[in-house]
Amino acid sequence: MSNNLLEVKHLMVSFTTEEGEVQAVRDVSFSLKRGEILAILGESGCGKTVLCKSILRILPENGSIKSGDIILNENNLLKLSPNSMNKVRGKEISMIFQDPMTLLNPTIPIGKQIMEAVMIHQKISKSAAKKKSIELMELVGIDDAEKRHAQYPHHFSGGMRQRSVIAIALACNPKVLIADEPTTALDVTIQAQILDLIQELQERTGISIIFITHDLGVAAKIAQRIAIMYAGKIVEIGTAQDIFYDPLHPYTWGLMSSLPKMDSDEELLDCISGMPPNLLHLPQGDAFANRNKYALKIDYLAEPPMFKISETHSAATWLLHQDAPKIQPPVRF
Amino acid sequence: MKTEKILEVKNLKQYFKLNRNTIIKAVDDISFDIYQGEIFGLVGESGSGKSTTGRSIINIYQPTGGEIYYRGKLISDPKTYRANKKFINRNMQIIFQDSTSSLNSRMTINEIIEEPLLIQKIYKNKEERRKKVHELLDIVGMDKIYQNHYPFECSGGQRQRVGIARALSLDPEFIIADEPIASLDVSIQAQIVNLFKKLQHKNGLTCLFISHDLAMVRYVCDRVAVMYHGKIVELAETKELYRNPVHPYTKALFSSILVPDPDGAKERTRIKYDLHIDIHSKETSHLTDYTEVSAGHFVYCC
Question: What is the pTM of this model?
Answer without folding.
Answer: 0.82
